Amino acid sequence: MAQYRASESKREQFRRYLEKSGVLDTLTSVLVALYEEADKPNNPLDFIKLHLGAAGPEVVDVEALRMELSDLQQKCNLLMEENKELRNRLMQYEPSPEGGAAE
């Protein structure tokens, strides 16, 4: 019987913890929004994730980031080529360190 009361006490502490941190209010509001949804979603878990902010980035954001990444990769490749070209031109006008030490 004492073990049952200890277990009940832990449950009550956990419930107070959830109330105090606002978790119960947030979950309640999301579940109410799901209940009031006229067209129930096929996947209620996705609905809950979306409303809790755990759904991840928007598709538009991901696509914009992919385009930006592609542009930056092209720019980096162009700069690498330019750097290589400029090093080659510089080597024509400056003697290599090995050649200068022998003279």
From TrEMBL:
Q: Can you say where in the cell this protein is located?
A: Nucleus
Keywords, A to Z, come to: Coiled coil, Nucleus
Coiled-coil region(s) at which residues?
Answer: 62-89
Is Coiled coil among the key words of this record? Answer: yes
What the record says about family reads:
Belongs to the AMY1 family.
Q: Which Gene3D superfamilies match?
A: 6.10.250.1060
Name a GO CC annotation attached to this entry: nucleus
Query: What would be an example GO MF term here?
Result: transcription coactivator activity
What name has this protein been given in UniProt?
c-Myc-binding protein-like
